RNA sequence: GCGUUCAUGGUGUAGGGGUUAGCACAAGAGGUUUCCAACCUCUUAGCCCGGGUUCAAAUCCCGGUGAGCGCACCA
């Protein structure tokens, strides 16, 4: 089969078999929105569940769930509103797109606060296109990639957005998480769910969607004691593409431990999550040879990230970012603390030994300062408390916060030397965030599993999905649609479906070979065939998808192996 | 958003100003068959949407929507 048409054949199969389809298709479809059909939705649920289990197994990570509708102030604090409300304009001559405020910043001191009308006026004053020197601009348009909505009716409504990431939900719950974990770092919270970005130009099937499935972990740590794991016990060699502007530019192959030791991965916890990301991707069936980790250059770093790695997977669309692992430092919690004025977005760091601190201060004498400065007394007291260097003698001139100066006379203050035992301090935890694009991962799972083969001269396709990922675990096939075989097949199907995590479907239409082919195409790993012998002794044949080898086994032992995930042991 | 190619049953395609719109595969019913897309009979099902030109549009023109590719964008 011609290799160059593989993408079309794969996409056609996904539509035909109800894996992934265009959404709202009977109304013409909407770009960037997709449906998961019966097969795809089952695969998605199982992959998502594996992701949840993967992180919950750490023991210090819990799952939460937050609203998708998010009030505006949250996203102002996170930076999503301010950073991405930029007005864009396009050169009519060459088609280049620019941030409108950047083009006119020499004409206005605060260009990024201008409305589009004002910007357009400035643009019309003869601003030249940086790439072609023409000066004809389209009307500037805001390019906020968030979907807007309102909470509440009419003018009483508050502006809100559909969340562009699930992460803010974890930050909102930080105080509850801190309590849940009995005030001890490190700990993490995960959330899976929908995220929304009103992409200008969705492309490439399920790679850039307007509504997509995300799965994010926020792991809160003490930056002075970052959690480490022994990565040198791991044996895999992975492809790394370090920061092109840094000392390790280029492409290297090494283990996670070696990369950390070499300073390529700069943070031990980030390195640990790179490794755990690798584990997950392997578990769901991504080809290890087509995974690489790429470090962001400082120029492409997200506005909140201090260091960032993309995990990219290679498929029909080239190398695609499927996971972002960012060290967001204290950016989010600190910003939410400032904007919301909430306490409780910090953690307590106990010193190994209490520190005895001796502080010399000028204690204000309220009964003198009050009557003397009256309305300014508060500011004077604040300025006194804020002094970092105490004057040697009185009187002295004290500068207030607003710049004015007052004279402090003896009697207004009392010089005190205070000793306090300090047993610890409050600090804002840092956050390491692995963020997974579930749809992109599913695409690559399907891409890597899809195999076009030949079978007796005929084209034949397999989905070599990992066990536990396929939409059902096995199909049950009555060899003939008569003689009681369908009844027995029904019983076997029901018995399997009664197991907690196993799924079976029965298929009795058309020839046995065709039914095997149908199951192979959507990746069902096992086929149980009920034949005449089954009617006599209750045994069935078990066919393994990956090599079409068959053995005979009794239903009871098959049930045990399906429940335990050890079907391979039958062979 | 710009440029470009394209849009025919579930899938892949042929055709094309007046046609019963053809084919293959898939699917459904029946027959046959002792385990890998076999065979026979029958059946279901299609010209993306909206305007225009024309006696007549699925076909030509314009617009929209969707898909692919290139440029731009992609926190």
Tag the structure with descriptive keywords.
571 residues, alpha+beta, BirA Bifunctional Protein, domain 2, Herpes Virus-1, 4 domains, 9-stranded mixed beta sheet, 5-stranded mixed beta sheet, 18 helices, 30% strand, elongated, RNA-binding
Notes on the protein architecture:
The chain has 571 residues and is of the alpha+beta class. It has a nine-stranded mixed β-sheet with strand order 3-10-11-21-16-15-14-12-13. A five-stranded mixed β-sheet has the order 25-24-26-27-28, sandwiched between helices. A three-stranded antiparallel β-sheet has the order 4-9-8. Helix 3 packs across helix 11 and helix 12 crosses helix 13. It is elongated and about 110 Å long. It starts with 5 loop residues before the first helix and ends in a 7-residue tail after the last helix.
Layout: helices, strands, pairs:
Elements: H1 6-16, E1 20-22, E2 34-36, H2 38-56, E3 61-63, E4 69-71, H3 72-78, H4 80-83, E5 87-90, E6 97-99, H5 100-103, H6 116-123, E7 141-142, E8 148-151, E9 158-162, H7 167-172, H8 174-180, E10 187-196, E11 211-221, E12 238-241, E13 252-254, H9 256-261, H10 268-283, E14 291-295, E15 307-315, E16 318-329, H11 331-340, E17 347-364, H12 366-373, H13 377-385, E18 396-399, E19 405-408, E20 413-427, E21 430-437, H14 438-449, E22 450-455, E23 458-463, E24 474-478, H15 485-497, E25 504-506, H16 512-521, E26 526-530, H17 532-537, E27 539-544, E28 550-554, H18 555-564
Parallel strand pairs: 3-10, 12-14, 24-25, 24-26
Antiparallel strand pairs: 1-2, 4-9, 5-6, 5-7, 8-9, 10-11, 11-21, 12-13, 14-15, 15-16, 16-21, 17-20, 18-19, 22-23, 26-27, 27-28
The chain binds one RNA strand of 75 nucleotides through helix 1, strand 23 and helix 16.
């Amino acid at each position: 089969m011609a290799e160059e048409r593989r993408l079309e054949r794969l996409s056609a199969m996904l539509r035909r078999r109800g894996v992934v389809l265009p959404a709202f298709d009977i109304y013409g479809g909407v770009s960037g929105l997709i449906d998961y059909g019966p097969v795809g939705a089952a695969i998605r649920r199982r992959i998502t569940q594996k992701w949840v289990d993967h992180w919950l197994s750490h023991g210090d990570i819990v799952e939460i769930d937050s609203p998708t509708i998010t009030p505006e102030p949250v996203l102002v604090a996170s930076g999503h509103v301010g950073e991405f409300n930029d007005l864009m304009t396009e050169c009519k001559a060459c088609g280049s797109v620019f941030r409108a405020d950047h083009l006119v910043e020499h004409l206005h001191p605060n260009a990024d606060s201008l409305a589009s009308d004002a910007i357009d006026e400035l643009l019309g004053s003869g601003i030249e296109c940086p790439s072609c020197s023409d000066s004809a601009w389209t009307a500037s348009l805001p390019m906020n990639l968030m979907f807007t909505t309102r909470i509440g009716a009419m003018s009483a409504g508050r502006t809100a957005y559909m969340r562009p990431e699930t992460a803010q939900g974890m930050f909102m719950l930080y105080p509850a998480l801190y309590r849940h974990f009995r005030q001890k770092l490190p700990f993490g919270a995960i959330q899976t769910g929908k995220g929304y970005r009103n992409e200008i130009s969705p492309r490439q099937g399920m790679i850039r969607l307007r509504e997509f499935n995300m799965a994010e972990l926020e792991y809160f740590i003490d930056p002075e004691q970052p959690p480490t794991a022994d990565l040198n016990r791991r044996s895999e060699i992975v492809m790394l593409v370090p920061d092109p502007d840094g000392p390790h530019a280029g492409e290297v192959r090494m283990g996670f431990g070696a990369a950390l030791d070499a300073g390529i991965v700069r943070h031990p916890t980030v390195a640990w999550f790179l490794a755990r990301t690798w584990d997950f991707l392997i578990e769901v069936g991504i080809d290890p040879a087509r995974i690489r980790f790429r470090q962001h250059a400082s120029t492409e770093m997200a506005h909140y990230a201090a260091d960032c790695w993309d995990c990219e997977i290679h498929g029909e669309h080239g190398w695609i970012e499927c996971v972002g692992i960012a060290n967001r430092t204290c950016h989010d919690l600190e910003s939410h603390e400032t904007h919301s004025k909430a306490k409780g977005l910090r953690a307590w760091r106990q010193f190994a030994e209490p520190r005895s601190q001796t502080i010399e201060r000028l204690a204000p004498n309220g009964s003198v300062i009050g009557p003397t400065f009256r309305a300014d007394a508060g500011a004077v007291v604040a300025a006194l408390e804020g002094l970092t260097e105490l004057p040697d003698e009185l009187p002295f001139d004290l500068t207030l916060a607003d710049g004015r100066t007052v004279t402090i006379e003896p009697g207004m203050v009392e010089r005190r030397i205070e000793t306090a035992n300090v047993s610890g301090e409050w600090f804002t935890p840092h956050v390491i965030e692995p963020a997974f694009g579930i749809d992109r991962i599913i695409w690559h799972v399907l891409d890597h599993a899809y195999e076009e083969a030949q079978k007796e001269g005929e084209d034949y396709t397999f989905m070599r999905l990992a066990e536990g990922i396929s939409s059902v675990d096995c199909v049950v096939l009555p060899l003939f649609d008569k003689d009681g075989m369908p009844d027995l097949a029904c019983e076997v199907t029901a018995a399997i479906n009664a197991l907690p995590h196993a799924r079976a479907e029965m298929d009795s239409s058309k020839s046995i070979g065709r039914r095997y082919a149908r199951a192979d195409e959507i990746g069902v790993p096992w086929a149980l065939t009920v034949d005449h012998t089954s009617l006599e002794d209750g045994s069935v044949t078990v066919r393994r998808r990956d090599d079409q080898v068959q053995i005979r086994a009794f239903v009871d032992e098959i049930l045990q192996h399906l429940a335990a995930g050890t079907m391979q042991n039958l062979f």
